[in-house]
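Researcher: Can you fold this with magnesium ion in place?
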Amino acid sequence: MADLALTGITKDYPGGVRALAALDLAVADGEFFALLGPSGCGKTTLLRTVAGLETASAGTVRIGGADVTRLPPGRRDVGMVFQDYALFPHMTVADNIAYPLRVRRAGREERHRAAEDVAGSLGLETLLARRPGELSGGQQQRVALARAMAARPKVFLLDEPLSNLDARLRLEARTFLKRLQNELAVTTVFVTHDQAEALAMADRMAVMEAGRIRQVGTPAEVFRRPANLFVASFIGSTPMNLLPGRVEGEQITVAGAVLPLPVSARGLVAAGEEVVFGVRPEYLEYSGKAADGAFAGRVAVVENLGGSSLVTLDAAGQAVHALVGEGREPEPGARGWAVPRPDRALLYRDGELVVD
Ligand code: ADP
Ligand code: MG
């Protein structure tokens, strides 16, 4: 068991691409840590640098306190699952799983025992003699996990392990992976570009943009208090309302409405300041009747999300999104009001959250 600490990690690829820019990251022992960010932000590069498959241009990688920056992959005690699984097509499932042990020159007996052990915990017992080409996507994914686990690494690195599964299988695999990690309590870095996956699975998470980390926190913290506009617009399964406004004393004028200042920004902004008012659709109370401190306008769109609907109001030319419960959906064209919760609304100044 071990923690993982990255300090000042920079990675420049030939050709002048800076994939990681002086990045610091600390993952606690036994933690399930999600690394979230759009395609191309450097997630895979970060994992490969921890695994030793890429050499950092600067900075230090520590596992369990030991500096492994200069060690080859085989001596770092990490297990990695690649996005495309990277199984050996000519080897059986058993040989694929036992491969890391062979690299370590473990004996035949030990390799077989370890492979059977891990295969058992992943429900692969009956597939040991098959080759990867004879397996479903979900089974291949489990074999890749089993291979990463076989040598009992101190740190698990999972690069978008669920992204090649279809939607239903992906949900099942989420639960399965979460339970497995709970049982093993191995320090795990889980890479995804899917914010819902990160929120659902992680103990803590980091949001990356262009080789940098923009916020670290628990899913609840990152969801409730995005630290900047990048994270605010990246997180959430419905788009967060981010509307330009102007501070007027204890109030703010935004999208034609005069609203109380968000609780978290009180005393921290001055009259006349130009800010962005942020509130998630979850935190707006929608009504068909006139209300104080509300965005007011015509209902432009109603989207059915299953148990609830996303209502888009046209409020003084700005789109304001509010979630409404089943059976309370308005008709498009109706007049509507949406009151943001002052204890959930946020202000952003120069792109950063206003908070003390
Ligand atoms: P992600 O996994 O978040 O999609 P990557 O780590 O794969 O991002 O890539 C980060 C950046 O580094 C991208 O701009 C990508 O084009 C670049 N990159 C990745 N691998 C290489 C490489 N081997 N050579 C040059 N540039 C690379
Ligand atoms: Mg990647």
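Model: Folded with magnesium ion in place. Residues 303 and 309 are 5 Å apart (CA to CA).
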